[in-house]
Amino acid sequence: MAGECILCGKCLEICPLLAATGREELGPRAKADLCYLLGRDEAGLRGADVARLAGLCLGCGRCAAVCSQGVDVPGLVAGLRGAHPEFRHWLWRAWLTHADALWPAGSAAARLVPESLRPDRFGSLLRMLAGLGREPGLTPFLTPTTFPDTHRGEPVLLFPGCTATLVRPGWLAAARRLLDGLGADILPGDFRCCGGGLKSAGFANEARNMARHNINVWRGAGRPRVAVFCASCQSALRGYGAFFEDAAEAGAWQSSLIVLSMLAKDIGFALSGAAPERIGYHRPCHAEGADSDRLLLAAALGDRLVTATDRQCCGFGGVMRLGAPELGDQVGRVCWDRLAGAELALTGCSACAAQLAAAAPRGVAAGHWLEAVG
Predict the structure, then answer these.
(1) 139 near 268, Cβ under 8 Å?
(2) 268-372 is classed CATH 2.60.40
(3) DSSP H or E segment with residue 253
(4) Domain boundaries in the chain?
(5) pTM score above 0.70
(6) Which of 107, 159, 282, 291 has a CB 3.0–4.6 Å from the CB of 132, allowing a cystine?
């Protein structure tokens, strides 16, 4: 796959890491070349060097989306990470597979470290960890007022994702209120992690186990619609294609997945006095198509939505956040430059929400758009 690169440069135009640093050796084409060279001579680099180079990728997937040759650099990088794991990869695996125990404990520990004592290199990471407590986030300012009848009685599974399940129950409560207002029949479903973060870090077996469990939940519920409110989870769920009985079932799964804001697009909202005057929107890297989250917010907020990102990545970067946080921070600063002037930044991805809140300029808030729904 790596050998199919034709040096067109489309990936270089879209890579947030290259745009923020100006270092072409960090771009997708260099990683594709690395995979090609390793395929010819695995002994050409030490395992430690391969692991270090493979770690310098955000995993945003923008390069794969624009490649005319179908070169999936994040997929190639995940393969390198799986073949050459190191301590931070194992730490990342533990962080995701034991999230129920580690996230609350990690948040409590991070909050004990004073801001003045946080090392520059890991300051944003500690701020992100500190923000993983169960305290309420933003003050809601969007109140649903009118609901269409288009989904009344429709059976729906709600995929909450790890963040809403463990540390942001308010997101899940707001999502349920919207579906209840629409009259949807919310089915019980014991979903696990989407597996996207594990797959990107090279832990294919663990990601596969998550996928098979989630598919079985869907089958057991009668293969209904699955409403998702995290763009990264949505992207990971759409990548389950290899785990179905046949092509028909795989197609039914793809058709069942729907972004929550698509279901909610015709709900009428009223703004309360708590609504900021200047609100920004961050488009997640994994958002698809027209981005229904932004469309919903544009309709609800009107001229209060004053700025939005397009190609700018928040800088979260998954496992790269452990190995090269300073590069992620560079990417994040480009993102916040685009959002300059906003008092609040909203997004539709759990990872983006955490990273934006950790890197927000003083006096500026950030969160998932569901936090704004009362």
Answers:
(1) no
(2) no
(3) helix 247-256
(4) 2-84, 268-372
(5) yes
(6) 107
